[in-house]
Amino acid sequence: MDVDLKKVSTIVDKYQGAGGALIAILQDIQDEFNYLPPDALKSVAEKLKIPLINVYSMATFYKSFSLKPRGKYLVTICLGTACHVRGAKNILGEVKKRLNVKRGETTEDKMFTLETVNCLGACALGPIMVVDGEYHGQMATRKVDAVLEKYKSKGEN
Ligand code: FES
Question: What separation in Å is there between the alpha carbon of 130 and the centre of ligand 1?
């Protein structure tokens, strides 16, 4: 994927001179591209005149950053104990089937990335599926399709 380095440049310039700007810059780049493309990281290092290794250590330290292309929507299935006993594995199975991806993978159309987590701290709502930061509680396999479709049509517009 070609990265529009002009966009990277604009982001870096926005934080010119601000202390501790690297994390904010990386956050904005991830918002723009849905992940941190290698060319963008190289350009950040050059513009900030810091070693590329420093940029990479920041990018790999925080779990919220992704060095792999991600879909427009992040789908997170909670597999913590409370969600697990209420059938979270079946929800995960259904999502995998519908999206045709495994954990950590992104759909071919770059619409969804599937991840799992060990407890979202909202156990009473379990089983939980989070899409694009929105919680869908008391999930059931029969509801999966409708939830995914909602984001799919939103993403296509
Ligand atoms: S186990 Fe799923 S929210 Fe706690």
Answer: 11
Say which amino acid occupies 121: G
Residues 103, 105: Cα–Cα separation, whole Å: 5
Assign domain 73-156 to its CATH architecture: 3-Layer(aba) Sandwich (3.40)
Q: Which residues does ligand 1 sit against, CB inside 6 Å?
A: 78, 80-83, 119-123, 126, 128
What residues does each domain of the chain span? 5-61, 73-156
Can you tell me which residue has the tokens 């929105």?
134
**What are the pLDDT tens digits along the chain (157 aa)?**
578 899 999 999 999 866 679 999 999 999 998 899 999 999 999 999 999 999 999 999 988 899 988 888 999 999 999 999 999 999 999 999 999 999 989 999 989 999 999 999 999 999 999 999 899 999 999 999 999 999 998 877 6
**pTM for the full model?**
0.74
